Structure formats: structure tokens, C-alpha cells
Amino acid sequence: MTQTVQAQTADGEPPVRRAAQVGTIISVVILGIVSLIGILIFASISDALPAIQSTALSAASTSVTDGFASALELVPIVMLTLVAMLVIAVVQRMRVVG
Length: 98
What we know:
Low-confidence stretches: none
Oligomer: single chain
Order of helices and strands: HHH
Mean pLDDT: 80
Strand content: under 5%
Number of helices: 3
Largest sheet: none
Radius of gyration: 23 Å
Helix content: over 70%
Structural class: mainly alpha
Distance between the termini: 30 Å
Shape: elongated
């Protein structure tokens, strides 16, 4: 007979599942840091621009700023989704182990 041995951590959990959970936490942290740096860079560039006299150019600038703001509104939703996935995985692990 051939017996298959699977690697497990000290608490009996496969290392691949634990690595996926750690990867989710790292993704949330990186997403938060990158979005914060993006906001700071965008604010610095926006403040460094001279006053716009042209109505068309002002409207274009406002459109770009509004588009950036709309995109950043999705960042907390993505972060909450990743955290919810992590919580569900932990609860599922507790259900299977316990």
C-alpha cells in the first residue's frame, strides 16, 4: 500500500490555506498603502498646477478630479470584501476543525 503524507502546520492546517490567508491580509495592507500614496501624489500634483483661466480646461480638470474621486470610492469596498473573505475562511476553518 502507498500512503500519502500531507504537510501540515502545528495546528493541523495545510500550509497552502494558511498562506492564502496571509496573502489576503498582505493584499489589504498593500491596497491601503498604495491608495494612500496615490491620494497624496494626486493632491500634490493638483496643488502644484497653476490657476486655470480657460473654462474648457477647467471643466476637463474637474472631470479628471471627479473621475479619480469616483475610482477611490471603490477602494474601501474592495478592502471590506477581502476582509470578509478572510473572516469567512477563518469561520469555515473553525467549523471543519471543531
